[in-house]
Specification:
Elements (H helix, E strand, L loop, with lengths): L36 E5 L6 E5 L3 H4 L4 E5 L1 E3 L3 E6 L4 E9 L5 E6 L7 E3 L4 E7 L5 E7 L2 E2 L2 H11 L16 H4 L7 E4 L11 H8 L4 E6 L22 E4 L2 H7 L5 E4 L1 H13 L3 E4 L14 E5 L6 H10 L1 H13 L10 E4 L1
Parallel strand pairs: 1-18, 3-13, 3-15, 4-12, 15-17
Antiparallel strand pairs: 1-2, 5-6, 5-8, 6-7, 7-10, 8-9, 9-10, 10-11, 13-14, 14-16, 17-18
Helix pairs in contact: 7-8
């Protein structure tokens, strides 16, 4: 990372760019998960500490913990076009009327029928953002999400992020799935959750109340901010639900720790709208800081991503760049399977 310049503008996307040696991109998770490293930053004292994730309980103040109980589906499938050409499809999200928003690697036209063996997909519309709208068909029947899920479980692949740059394995079905996972729908893992083990959870629950939300993470979470001014970025939306007990907590003055950026966005969207379910399209950045989340647990994120901008909404651009520079110097592992940071 280049040294900070006073001219850095927190509303310019170039201010969130940094160089990461490829050797620091984690291709596999820590084993066990809670042996990952943890960078702890205290905003009040400005103290920076280097710890191990399993030591998390010793750093947490009194607070309630909120996690995302979404479950990653096998959203990547491989097949062929009618012409015989190979095709790769990544489901982004279900839409109304048994339609799905997807990304397709390979050229397709409206009306094209894609063959995935026991499953077909018909391309209905090509969208300007590069995504496609399709309908999935089996035995001449158009499928909804509930009918599609068991088929994906049989023929699909774990949708590892592109920067991991390897084929998924059977092991990824376990390691790219949070311990909290209950409700199928995500096509990317809420990665701060990947560090938890049953033993660590048991320890934390002795001193901290646990609550849940559901936000089905979409592929848009990886989309870099291409606009020069970050406020011009068309933020993606994702479906969320918040149980009544969690809404009651959010309406109180109790301190909360958000396990990851997905929880943070959901909580902050609720704090602004008071809606317990719907579409979350909140973009947190230094010009739009959090108003409800007190503490954040998160991984280290891609350059120029909305996620690193979310971190900066808590601690500012300069401190974000400083902590990332320290993490690189200290050889922390980055991205989905990488190490974590706790902001107090």
């Amino acid at each position: 990372m280049k040294k900070m310049k006073k001219s850095l503008n927190p509303l310019k996307s170039e201010s969130y760019d940094y160089h990461l040696p490829s050797s620091l991109i984690a291709k596999y998770p820590a084993n066990p998960p809670d042996s990952a490293r943890l960078l702890v930053y205290d905003r009040k004292t400005e103290a920076i500490k280097h710890a191990i994730f399993k030591d998390l309980p010793s750093y947490l103040p009194k607070c309630s913990i909120i996690f995302n109980d979404t479950k990653v589906i096998k959203a990547r499938i491989f097949g062929r076009k009618e012409s015989g050409g190979k095709i790769e499809l990544l489901i982004n999200r279900p839409l109304a009327d048994k339609k799905f928003n997807v990304f397709i690697r390979g050229k397709v036209r409206e009306g094209t029928l894609l063959d995935f063996g026991s499953l077909q997909a018909k391309v209905i519309e090509l969208l300007p953002d590069g995504s496609r709208i399709v309908a999935f068909i089996q035995n001449d029947k158009i499928l909804d999400i509930h009918e599609l899920l068991p088929i994906l479980d049989a023929i699909g692949h774990v949708p590892l992020p592109p920067y991991i740059n390897r084929e998924d394995t059977k092991k990824d079905e376990l390691t790219y799935q949070p311990i909290f996972a209950q409700k199928p729908g995500a096509v990317a893992a809420p990665t701060a959750s990947l560090h938890f083990t049953p033993e660590l959870l048991a320890t934390l629950k002795q001193s901290h109340p646990f609550y849940n939300i559901t936000l089905h993470v979409g592929a848009g979470t990886f989309k870099p901010v291409e606009a020069e001014e970050i406020t011009q970025h068309p933020i993606h939306s994702e479906y969320y639900e918040i149980p009544a007990a969690t809404c009651k907590l959010l309406d109180s003055n109790e301190k909360i720790l958000a396990i990851g950026t997905t929880v943070t966005r959901t909580v902050e969207y609720y704090a602004r709208t008071k809606k317990c379910h719907g579409e979350c399209d909140l973009f947190l950045h230094p010009g739009n800081p959090p108003i409800r989340v007190n503490h954040l647990l998160t991984n280290f994120h891609l350059p120029k991503s909305t996620l690193i901008m979310l971190v900066a909404s808590f601690i500012g651009l300069e401190k974000t760049r400083e902590l990332y520079e320290i993490a690189i110097q200290e050889q922390y592992r980055f991205y989905s399977y990488g190490d974590a940071m706790l902001i107090l």
